[in-house]
Amino acid sequence: MMAARAARAASGGSGTALRRSAAPLLAPGLLWISVVYVIPGALILVYSFLTPKLGGGVVWQATLDSWEEIVARGRRSDAGWGTVGAAALRGIATAAVAAVPTVAAARYLGRRISRGLGFAALLGALAAVNHLASAYNNYTAVFARSVVWSLWATVVCICLALPLAVFISSRSSPVTKNALLIAVMVSFWTSMLVRTYAIRFLLANTGPLNNLIEALGLDRVVFLNTRFAVILGLVYTALPFMILPLYAATERVERAQMEAARDLGARPPQVFADVFVPMVRPGLTVGVVMVFVLSVSQYLVPTLLGGGKTNMIANLLELQFGEAFNWPLGAAVAALFSVVTFAGLYLTVGRRDQEELL
Amino acid sequence: MTTSTNKANRAVWLRLLAGLTAFAIIVAACGDDDDDSADATTTTVDSMPEAPTSEADAETPDADAEMPDAESPMSERCGDPDRLGDSINFLNWADYIDEAVLEMFEEECGVSVTMDTHVANEEAIAKVDAGNSGYSLVIVTDYAVEIMSSQGLLQELDMGEIPNAANIDPNQMDPYYDPGNVYSLPYQYSTTGLAFDETAFSTPPTSYSAIFDENSHCGSSSLLEDQREVLGAALVYLGYDWNEVSQAAHDEALDLVLESRDCVTGFDSANYIGNLASGEVLVAQSWGFAAGIAYLDNPNIRYIIPEEGGTIWQDNFLIPADAPDPYTAHVLINYMLEPDIGALITEFTIGYTPNLTVPPLLSDGYYEVIAGAGLELTDDIRERLVWQVRSEEHSIFAETWSEVIAAG
User: For the whole model, what pTM was predicted?
Assistant: First the structure.
């Protein structure tokens, strides 16, 4: 007892000492973070309360115009109680439709029905909020679109990356593993701009993909400048950021536990949901956050593959900081968006009881 | 054994992963940093007293230039060798000058030119506005001159040092954005209209209806990614002025653009040139010079100024108020207004030259493109052209355009 307390005290003491001695090492990192994130972030917030200047920049004169524009003035005339009703209906409909598979899945996996219903309700709420935001004003509409597309990209990335990660980590030869992982990362060695242009070329109306489609006797399909192209680009760009953490997580999965579960009578989906997923959850969380955050702020992909017809938040920012000469409005959009994204991430993956979701 | 290999292996990969994560964060941070550093610099400048202007700064390069290059006798096109610097920083649009011109200037006058490029007037304004940009010569489009001069970012040109200014077409002088050419002289100019593939039309289009209402090439047409050009075209098509700022007119124009949105492949200011040449796009709102470039690859490309009207725009030489070497900038401006140099420039840009001594020197190839693509600027066409004015009240264009962005 005494020994245990002493040991605890000792370890605590050495921990503090370690912390103190590590302080100088920490300084460059802290300085970097404050210079690169905190100061610009604060500046953006300050700019959002200033007056725009023709030609770009700001006049140092405080005003609430930008925030008013986002919150009130930019409001669409057709958004009213009818919209709220429609949003609610849409949320309920979505939840109802989603409840069928989620409840079935919960039952099949031996979970409580309420968990399936809860997940369906969450999807319904998302759909309702999306509907409201899309109808409220230009800014919320673009916010909503960016978030929804990024969520799609995240889901697609999980579906593609999970089997790949399991496949790579189940190779017995380290050489094969390394080769496969390098293959995943090879794309990083070419500029993203060039790669995005390459996709543009592939998807063009007169591009190779459409030539193939025509050669097969089918009609050419418009891929470029559609939401399909943009989500494809998001997935393409972010996929390695899902594969790598998932690989790191699947490497640590104890296969013996999964075999034990199977021996004890668990069906494969149950082994997956109750044994495998909890073990890879940390990697999954990292992957989800990275893919979502990278996607939601993408500029190149919606610009090059969306062609001005499918825009995300960065395109709106570009307009305000560029041709519109309205830096304060751009700053307000950026600040609001950062807060919304941060809050969303905190609520979904930042809390400890994330098991509800993943 | 296997376990330990696995563990070592895993450790390596985890480290690699951490490295990659750090890399991703740095990349993201650098992305942020671009905007933010611009913010930061502007703040400093705004909160400081006016940057000291040229006089004092201009002395420094003179000291460097005390020993002019003795080997090659200076041409008389190089101004006063005692005052000429040995290097100059030049900010120009990307792909907007034959770089041979810069090499010739270096060879002839001994001044090495470092050219940076911008892809938007807004970018050029921001660079100069941030202060200490180091540029002694900048090229931007008409409205940007007005914005920059009104904010005290420019210095007056000394026409005594630019005798070749006398060669400039009076039509292109004394523009709305710089009455009396106090701060600017024209570099090149062009127009905005419609380009189309002749073989795709039984009767050539004469109106914006080819894109707006009666689009016979739905899915193969494009509009520029430019709020002013697109909304302006919609406004004139609806019978309003190109620079109209009333809410009612903008509501109508917005509806028209949103209706046409499904038919245009995109709002695009760069890729459509190649797409016109390849046949991916058959009719596009286009810069005049760009139609000429597309014509070089596809001789079926034709260019028109629609009956409703189009825009004329002009790029200009400017000297920033805090230019390190205004004298050398004046010499370089004068040099680029020499007939032979002007010809090199216009052959490259396929724009129009404001320099009256240049047209006789332009090649048959240039005239073949101008005539073939229908780029001749006749008086009749000139009457249909307007300048795009940009002042505070024109912020309504951005408001309308944000609706277009929000729509999809």
Answer: 0.82
